Amino acid sequence: MRSLIVRSAAAALALAILPVACSKLGLDKDLEKLGLGGQPAQSKELPSPKQLKTIAYMSRANSGGKDGRLIYDHIEQARSCHDLGIAMRWNRPPDIKAGPFDQKMTYISSGIPADLSKTSEVFLTGKIKAGQSMPSGGSVWSLTLPDGSELQVIESPEYSEKQEEAQQEPGAPQTMSHPYTPGRLLCVYGVYQGDIGMALGKPQHVPLVSALFAMDRTR
Known about the structure:
The chain starts with a helix and ends with a strand. It contains five helices and eight strands; from the N terminus they run H-H-H-E-E-H-E-E-E-E-H-E-E. The model is unreliable at 1-35 (pLDDT under 50). It has one domain (3-217): CATH 2.40.50.140. By secondary structure, the protein is of the alpha+beta class.
């Protein structure tokens, strides 16, 4: 599993890129601000009332817009990757440009689209093949996507520390319980970096995503 780090020069390159993306995304703010942005009042791809009912346990707050739209302000409360996906789609519908990059969020339901542009914001869920912390801090994972393809995910030391700090607050939900356990799910909101990741135990490249928010769950 150590080859996941040692042999991945691509991951090191992405780590150099990530602080810039984090700054632009405003990730120096509180955890609850992640993934929020825009006023998608005219979206045609919002979750259904039935879907929203399943995440009624998650807190909401006024987005600050003129329309008074409520958004899920503590996405770390999600009990499953499925629930997180619903909250994200409400906050950032896939058909509306929003967020710090003023672009549409790409929701990965199978594999990475062939025409996906670098620096695209993405949300995805994959099954953990392997994962570990890095000597310099942060984490790296090898995931299997629903279509069976492999993806590498990295989380910068800076952001990893912020997420750990947020979890230490009294009563705070645990975003990471068993983050390196094979078979568990890892749901990720991040930035696509292209096919510059390293496959697990193979001398070939795979898609790489720099994680801006991640949590592990059983479903």
